[in-house]
Structure formats: structure tokens, C-alpha cells
Protein 1
Amino acid sequence: MFWRVVLLALGAGVVWKGATWVVNGSTKMARFFAFPRIMLGFTIIAIGTSLPELGVGIFSALGGDTALSLGNIIGAGFLNLCVVLGLAAIISPVSINRSTLFGEAPFLFLAVGLLWVLGIDGVIDRLDGILLLVAYCAFFALIGIQLGTQHVHPHILNRIHEFQVTGKTHSVIRTLCMIIGGMVALVIGARLIVDSGIALAQWWGVPSLVIGLTLVSLGTVVPEMVTAIVSSRRHANDLNIGNVFGGVVFNTLCIIGIVGVIYPISIDSTLLTRDIPLLLVVSFGVIALLKSGSRLVRWEGFLLIAVYVLYLVAMLVATPAVHV
């Protein structure tokens, strides 16, 4: 079992390195095309840093252990909203503009709410998975409309033409290779994490759901944590909002949707009565905190982290297998 722990740590390290490449490459690409950072966070970075969760979801579904995948997504949601945003707010206040607060932000609450409603019957089947994917397409369309109102599309086309004329396309290609390499590293790291997580769960006698809610989710959220720390130090706090909100929406709608299409997800009653409702409350609470002052300050960051610690302690105490 010692080597399983080593492989789990190695997987987290590979995820960390891959996340660094994705974040750095995405940031350079945004500079190339003057792409709004908030929208960059909602799209490229949110999807790129969520690749570990996607890898865990696909590998778990193919292995028939969807409880690990679902636990990972719910656990990652708590970590993103409480710990990632909390750390970002402690380092530097996290702000949000009005259009995002009333446009994309509500999708965070709606995504978790839709998952809860579809899972009331105890399973996310293929039809439910398709509905979740359609909902994510609607979210992505909203972002496209938002970009259209900011007249970003013509500017991007102009920049592409400029790079072609000046012959600087090699720098764009190099940056694109960095992003792709980072994404490959994220998937490889995710595979190491999920294999080690399942083995450790069996060895300790801990349910896969609990392992997914804790160890696996912590390992797969490392990219978002890296993004939060780097962005806060560079005072790019709008990137944090897009990364966290976009990541939670992507995980909840797209990843669970894909897993549900591959293999039906059985939902434990504990998730329906405790974890998903709590995630709904946390989602609403974060939006309310942002709405009150259009930003998260240091004391609110500490509050969010404290909420996660209380949730983690309560969950572990309520899980008999942990004490075996």
C-alpha cells in the first residue's frame, strides 16, 4: 500500500505540473488575442483545470465505480467554492463585475440544483446525462453571447491575421503545444490518482464515495488551487471567479453528464439528503457574499475555509468506516 500512496502523490505532482503549463499557456494565449480574463476563466482555464475530474469520471465510469466519480465532483465543488475562493480572497480581494454576477453566476446554483432534481430518483441515467450536457451547452452559448456583446470575435480575427502577416504564428503554436502538453499531463495524473484512490479505499475499508469526496477531489482540485494562488498574486482576481464558477458548472453538468451517458450513476441517499443540498447552500452563500459587495475580502475567505473544515469533519465523523 506504500506504493499506492506514492503513486497518489506522484499523480498529484503530475497534475500540478500540467496545471502550471495550462495556466501559463492559457494566459499567454489570452494576451495574444486580448481575450477578457473573466471569459478565459469560464472557458479555457475552467475546462483545462477540470481535466483531472474529467479523467477520473471517465476512468471510473469505464471501471463501473461511478460513486468515486460522483464523490469527486461534489467534493471538488466544495473545495473550489470554499477553499480555492477562500485562499484567493485571503491573498487578495476577489471581485466580480455586475454582468457576470447576474449573467453567468446564477448558473452555478442552477447546475447544482439540476443535478439534485435529476438525482432524486436515485440514479443519473443516460437521459439525465444528455439533459445535463444540453444545460452545459446553454451555459456555453450564454458565454458566446456575452463575448459577442463585447465585440471580441472581430478583434480575435484581426489578431490572427496580424500574426499571419508578421510571421509570429510560431509563438502561438508553441504556446498551444504547452497547453496541450499540460492537458495530457492532467489526464495522466488523474489516472494515477483514481487508481490509487480506489486501491486505498479497498485497503482501508472506506467507501469509494468518501474517498472521492476527500482524497481524490483534493488531488484533482490542485490545478484550480494553483490558478487561484498565481492569479491572486498577479491581482488577476476576475480570472479566479471564472475559473471556479466555470469549473464547478463544467464538472456538474458536463462531466457528470458524460459519465451518466457512459454508465448509469447510482446516487447514495446521503448525497441527496446531505452533500448536494449543502453544496446548494454554499453556492447560494458565495453568490450572496459577492452580491453584497461585488467582492470577497479576507475575512470572508477565512469564513469559507472554516465552512469546508466543518463539513469535512462532520462527514468523516458520520462515516463509520473511517474509524475501522
Note: Residues 2-323 form a domain with the A middle domain of Talin 1 fold (CATH 1.20.1420.30).
Protein 2
Amino acid sequence: MGADYVIGVYLNAHWVQLRGPRHLFDVIGQCFSIAQARMSAQWRKDTDLVLEPDVDGFTYDGFDRSSELIASGERAMRAALPALKKFLEAKSPAAHGLLAKADAKPHMTAA
């Protein structure tokens, strides 16, 4: 779509805890979680950077903990800043060893 750089965010969430689903929405949510995990390779190949905030222990309906989720996202972005800066500063990524081939795209993941 014309973007110069693409940053993706992957929320590796397990909606249902060990106790099992509580209701139909938990079942549906777990289905989406499984589908998301299986489809992530499809969109990851088109990204320059993938952020993966730690969302363990959060539930899909835990809106009361939104500030904690935002903080987790901020930590993931801060961890990725050195790699992102290096990528953006490189005039020729292939010449600096960031790419295996001149036509390939780098893939950086921040945990």
C-alpha cells in the first residue's frame, strides 16, 4: 500500500487458562487465538519489525489492566529501538549486512 516501513504487533495470547473456558466467548476467543498463531507467518513476512509485548496473565476482557498492557507495549518498543534505529540509519541495508540478499527484507523481533 506504499508504506516505506512496516511495524507489526503480535499479541501471543492464550485466552483460556488451565481451568478451561468459562463460557462461549472463551471458546470463541481461544479459536481466534489459535487462528492468529497459525496465520502470523503470513503477515510477518511483510514486516520490517515485529513487536511482541508480554501479555501473559492478561485476559481479553481485562480492561481494568489497560495501563499495564500499554506499559508492556512500551517496554517492547523500547527494547526494539536499537534495532529499529540501526535499520533506519542504514543507507544501504544490504551493504551493512542487515540483509542476506539485496531484495530481501530484514526481520527484527523484540521481546
Note: The first strand starts at residue 7 and ends at 9.
